[in-house]
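Hey, resending since the last one bounced:
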Amino acid sequence: MAWIILVLAGLFEIGWAVGLKYTEGFTRLWPSLWTVGAMVLSLSLLGLALRTLPLGTAYAIWTGIGTVGTALLGIWLFGEPATALRLLCIGLILAGIVGLKLVSPH
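The structure tokens again:
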């Protein structure tokens, strides 16, 4: 169950990271409220997952999910470059996430 909670925390991290772009410096009410709500949920779920999972593993996976998801949504939503080298680096981060999960004792 902790792994599911951790993945949800990572998804909410993606939500607030992308949400920051839409807040326009926290000048827009609804995107700002969504972003702050996603921040609270993401950190709360990470805290719950840390009851069971090792800190280093959980934090690395949480930030990795957020990094990969945010980078991919940046490409899709905001037209950021999708160069081969950039996609390779995103793939390496994803490989690190999977590797940490596979070697985790929990």
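The two ends are 10 Å apart (CA to CA).

Sorry for the duplicate.
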